[in-house]
Write a structure and sequence with these properties.
This protein has helices spanning 2-7, 13-22, 27-30, 95-100; strands spanning 45-49, 53-59, 66-72, 78-80, 85-91. By secondary structure, it is of the alpha+beta class.
């Protein structure tokens, strides 16, 4: 997970929490700009989520139409043919849920 956070340009989970908190109102609308060179099978675009699955959308650059797909916390890499890019979920453990079980 640490490598995944570094790939997103973050030093730790606290920075992800801070980023989400700052952008909570516009987080889903603003989207995620992937790091340069990502999107390959070896270096997929990482989508952070605390859920077991997440719906991801992208805008077609020519028509501006929105398209959606779902990725899961199943360690698979997802290829989106229309984009020619690979995606993978970066599962972020839910510390509050884990703490309530102890």
């Amino acid at each position: 997970m640490k490598k995944g956070l570094e790939d997103l340009g973050l030093d730790g989970i606290e920075e992800l929490d801070e980023l989400e908190e700052k952008n909570m109102d516009g987080y889903n609308e603003l989207g995620l700009v992937p790091p340069e060179g990502s999107g390959t099978f070896i270096s997929p675009i990482l989508i952070p989520s605390r859920m077991d699955s997440r719906v991801v959308g992208y805008e077609d650059p020519s028509t501006h139409a929105m398209f959606w797909f779902t990725i899961h916390n199943d360690d698979n890499t997802y290829y989106i043919k229309d984009l020619g890019l690979f995606f993978k979920m970066l599962h972020i453990p839910d510390e509050t849920a884990h703490a309530s079980h102890h």
